[in-house]
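Hi again,

Forgot to attach this to my earlier email, sorry! This is the prediction with adenosine-5'-diphosphate bound. I've pasted everything inline since the attachment limit keeps bouncing my files.
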Amino acid sequence: MFEGDVRRLLATVGIATAIGLVSGELLLCYLAATLLHLAWLYRNLSHLLTWLRNRSTLDAPESPGLFEEITLEIDYLRERHRKRKKTLASYLRQFQQATRALPDATIVLGEDGEVQWANEASARYLGIRWPEDMGQRITNLIRHPKVREFVLAKRTESALEIPSPINSHRFLSILLAPYGDSRWLFVARDITELHRANLVRSDFVANVSHELRTPITVFRGYLELLYEQRDMAPPPWLPALEQLNAHANRMQELVEELLLLSRLEQSDRVTDPEPVLVSEMLADILKQARIVSGSREHLFTLETDASLRILGSASELKSCFTNLVVNAVNYTPARGVIRVRWFEDARGAHLEVQDNGTGVAEEHLDRLTERFYRVDSARARGDGGTGLGLAIVKHVLIRHGGMLDIRSQLGVGSTFRCDFPPETIVPQSSLPLSRPA
Ligand code: ADP
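Structure tokens for the complex follow:
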């Protein structure tokens, strides 16, 4: 208790006692003194409350002792709170300035995809302005079917690449990142230069392959002629002729596959899809695979749903499935088992090629579909592969809205599965079929 308050209380009790003794009404005097003290406390409390409510216009009430201390404490807390608020506001301002100046378009989306905040780059790349577009759904502001699908499916695992909705010469890579309580960061980065570099690279590869095609065909034709008449050549030339012939074949295969890849890369959709009867195509592919297997005598099993058809390009699908089956032959030792299945389930149609061959170690799996990526380059080259097979598979699947799933265990075997979405499946009652290419 504070000294002033104690003195005041003692004085009140003392006066009450004196008056009580003189008047002979001690109890009544104590009661009156208590009521007086309570009235004084009430008055001070009500002054304190009035001051708290009108702090900006009134001075702090001046009453010594406990109430003065309370007033000082409140003042101190208020000052501390004001300083903290000021610091936080300055942090917030700095953070907003930094995010506003971010070179990537950054938009905060609410649970339903509505714009809650956007930086300046959003107007430049996407035409989204803040605060004008606040509260509008991003799918109404960017009317691109892929963006709609991307946002509604809340895809966070991969980026989406689209031309800018306000400038078709610029390309954007879009990422969606969840944060906090059902909020999303929608980030669009300008990748025009990268896109252009990729175009230049694929144009270059396509042009070189195209230019090489004719000379290699001529070169190979003459070599074949020489090779057919090898009986007339001096014996020391025979190994050289054989090598030349093998390498010429390989070069032609490489150029053809590079050209095919360039064609596949041109667009991510098949232009004129037709119903394809995959089971017949697979029977054909397995016939070829038996020839490739030759003396290695692999054991093939084929399980197919004979009526299951998908919409797509027969020639591309044949090339895709052939690559997978031939790979299984090439990477499975003699008399190994190769199992091919074509089936449908709730997730769509699937082509699965399973082998009990060499398998692939986990660390290579993510890179297998890159061009020229080989786990054991010396061996793969020796076996005659171009290193483009799985890149072709991947692109064919992209063009059919599908995906490649690879499972493998070193020394145990591999399973390559092509997944086609349900919408590619042709309903049973439909038009005449196209024969496999
Ligand atoms: P390649 O012409 O070298 O076969 P691919 O693109 O078809 O090129 O395959 C890339 C690499 O993936 C191969 O070099 C091989 O290391 C690995 N691979 C592909 N299929 C299989 C398989 N069935 N079993 C083991 N490894 C495989």
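The CA atoms of residues 160 and 174 lie 5 Å apart. The pocket of adenosine-5'-diphosphate is lined by residues 323, 327-328, 331, 355, 357-360, 368, 373-376, 380, 385-391, 414 (CB under 6 Å).

That should be everything now.

G.
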